[in-house]
Amino acid sequence: NAGVTQTPKFQVLKTGQSMTLQCAQDMNHNSMYWYRQDPGMGLRLIYYSASEGTTDKGEVPNGYNVSRLNKREFSLRLESAAPSQTSVYFCASSQQGEGTEAFFGQGTRLTVV
Amino acid sequence: QKEVEQNSGPLSVPEGAIASLNCTYSDRGSQSFFWYRQYSGKSPELIMFIYSNGDKEDGRFTAQLNKASQYVSLLIRDSQPSDSATYLCAVHRGSYIPTFGRGTSLIVHP
User: Fold this and answer.
1) Shortest Cα distance from A11 to chain B (angstroms)?
2) B90 within 8 A of B63, measured Cβ to Cβ
3) Is the bond into B10 cis (omega within 30 degrees of 0)?
4) Which residue in B has a C-alpha nearest to residue A105's C-alpha?
5) Facing A48 at nearest CB: one of B46, B88, B97
6) Which residues pair with B5 in a beta bridge?
7) N or C: more exposed end of chain B, with fewer CB within 10 A?
8) Closest-approach residue (CA) in chain A for B102
9) DSSP conformation class of A89
10) Per-residue confidence in pLDDT tens, chain A, 113 aa
11) CB of A104 within 8 A of CB of A92?
């Protein structure tokens, strides 16, 4: 049981390049999330998907797009990377309903130079 | 003001002591409260959750909730060096979406 799997683990991009972070979960969860974590800022929600076919903006969506490809997969795309997007990105999933635990992927450390 | 507030620390305690980690939240409608532990370079993992006012104990960990004061805490008894990590408070604001505080860094020194 892999849980939440993210790829890649590390990535260096040049300013203006694009890339897609992949996330897949095998727990049959309805809800999936993308967070970024910066020193001193905690986890900030970028986008989330309540269920297959729906996506919504979180706290810091600018510069990002997402796709909920199916129930298992939720990808995050940077169309034109900027140094301000240097961060650690976490994908997470949970079952819907009040008080359910979020399960996290191992994270992607992205550096934009 | 962030919706979920934590002191960033670091909180330094000696081995064997009680570590007390605190979290306040702004939305009175919040229903569910979670504590996650995050080791350096790793992803967060759930330690405790609490829904009702009062205390909830699980081994060396106790979560305390006071909804009237909008305050939730985590006590770690008999702290060990392996407890050294960042502790993230998360709140569900009437939905399933967790909102996280910035985390408190805990250092347990031998």
Assistant:
1) 15
2) no
3) yes
4) B43
5) B97
6) B24
7) N
8) A42
9) E
10) 679 999 999 999 999 999 999 999 999 999 999 999 998 888 999 999 988 889 999 999 999 999 998 999 999 999 999 999 999 999 999 987 666 889 999 999 999 99
11) yes
